[in-house]
Amino acid sequence: MFDVNKIRNDFPILQRKVHGYDLVYLDSGATSQKPESVIRAMDDFYRNTNANIHRGVYEMSVESTLMVDGARKKVADFIGARTEEIIFTRNASESLNLVMYSWGKDNINEGDVILVSRLEHHSNLVPWQELCREKKAELRIIDVDSEGKLKIVGGEEKLYEEGGLRVRLGSLDKLVDAKVKLFSVTGASNVLGTLPDTLTMIRMIKERSPDVKVLIDASQMVPHMKVNVTKLEADFVAFSGHKMLGPTGTGVLWGKKKILSKMRPFLYGGDMIGEVKITGSTWADTPSRFEAGTPDIAGIIGLGVAVDYLENLGMDNVREHEKELIKYALEKMAKLEEEGLVKLYGPRDIEERGGALAFNVINVHPHDAAQILDSFGIAVRSGQHCAAPLVTSFGVPAMVRATFYVYNTKKEIDYLVDKIREVPKVFEV
Ligand SMILES: Cc1ncc(COP(=O)(O)O)c(C=O)c1O
């Protein structure tokens, strides 16, 4: 049974007040709150076990190593992967950059194409811009329609050439040919909530470019729905641990073993080597090859416990809960839109979207709106949400964004809607 009130009791931070009001945390898209079990596991590690992994034969070091190995197994099972395919990173940005440095630099050449979408977080756009510029490859970007869904066919095509980077923007069918070597796309938009149909797109691309590699930025997917990497038909999947109830400083890259085994390391140093001689070195196999230096041991252990927590809730229940919340929020917000109070962005069909709600209060700057909501204890984000090309394509400099997770309630949405009504009143003279 998914009992949101019981779940809320597991998150100590939800007891706090903000400006004298109960906290209404609607920014889990940026980072989620952490349950007591995760906080305790990390605290317990530092109090009772703290020792570096892989480097000692003494009991505490062996225990630490086993705990990290255990967390890797939990994450692997959570997404239907093999343990040696799970690489721990600091965050999703590092996971995406790892693919760019370790795979991209050796496999993208002049004239090749990298295909992304306008929905991307900067972390899945900027690395590819830089690689394309360096390699004289072309960056192609699937555009969005007025609802924020990816354009599959038709429409205009645009070409930009600036600072040594060639960018083509248009619908998927116009952008795919045999030159596409990498398709790197978000599984869920962090701004509009859009859930692109990645499977249909991947199959369409593979028909024209069978050797294409596929990278899914699943940062807003893995925390919110059941994900099985095999079913995604991807080669790499990147996500953050800290958005799925785990600690900050944790991220994950999953990659197919046969591809990872051929990739060069990302960082060099301790723990990632095979043999080191004064004249040169060889590399360990995956995942160690990509995990140089001391990892965030406590964080990884905490992430394992976060996975336990989500497994216990059941990811299908998590998705159902969020669908209910977003449906409820969209209905309420649509009324405000009819009244001319707000403008909503993103798909309206809840089957095609996750729990991110982007809006603006008419004639109020989003930063002002977010600050006024904060004065009532509501934590929402405002700005471009690290997706400037997406946000500005809607003709606005910024948006307010509320994101929902396992601990949010309909009552909180009622409160948000009530307080949005207050926002314009602040500016009345
Ligand atoms: C879709 C998406 N990709 C990538 C990132 C970057 O994640 P991190 O901050 O863990 O690097 C985020 C963070 O908001 C995101 O929402």
Topology:
Blueprint: H1 4-9, E1 17-18, E2 21-22, E3 24-25, H2 36-48, H3 59-78, E4 86-89, H4 92-107, E5 113-117, H5 126-135, E6 138-142, E7 158-162, E8 165-170, H6 172-175, E9 180-186, H7 198-208, E10 213-217, H8 229-232, E11 236-240, E12 251-255, H9 257-260, E13 273-277, E14 280-283, H10 297-313, H11 315-338, E15 342-345, E16 356-361, H12 366-374, E17 378-379, E18 381-383, H13 388-392, E19 399-403, H14 410-422
Parallel strand pairs: 3-17, 5-6, 5-9, 6-8, 9-10, 10-11
Antiparallel strand pairs: 1-2, 4-12, 7-8, 11-12, 13-14, 15-16, 16-19, 18-19
Helix pairs in contact: 2-10, 3-10, 4-5, 11-14
The chain binds pyridoxal-5'-phosphate (PLP).
How would you summarize what this structure contains?
This protein is of the alpha/beta class.
Q: How is this structure best described in words?
A:
InterPro entries: Aminotrans_V_dom, Cys_dSase_SufS, PyrdxlP-dep_Trfase, PyrdxlP-dep_Trfase_major, PyrdxlP-dep_Trfase_small. With 429 residues, this protein is of the alpha/beta class. The chain folds into 2 domains: 134 residues, Aspartate Aminotransferase, domain 1 (Alpha-Beta Complex), CATH 3.90.1150.10; 268 residues, 3-Layer(aba) Sandwich (Aspartate Aminotransferase, domain 2), CATH 3.40.640. Helix content is 36%, strand content 19%. It has 14 helices and 19 strands. The strands form 5 sheets. Strands 4-12-11-10-9-5-6-8-7 form a 9-stranded mixed β-sheet, with helices on both faces. A 4-stranded antiparallel β-sheet has the order 15-16-19-18, covered by helices on one side. Strands 1-2 form a two-stranded antiparallel sheet. Helix 2 runs antiparallel to helix 10, helix 3 packs across helix 10 and helix 11 runs parallel beside helix 14. The longest helix is centred in the C-terminal third of the chain and has 24 residues. The chain starts with a helix and ends in a 7-residue tail after the last helix. 47% of the residues are buried. The protein binds pyridoxal-5'-phosphate (PLP).
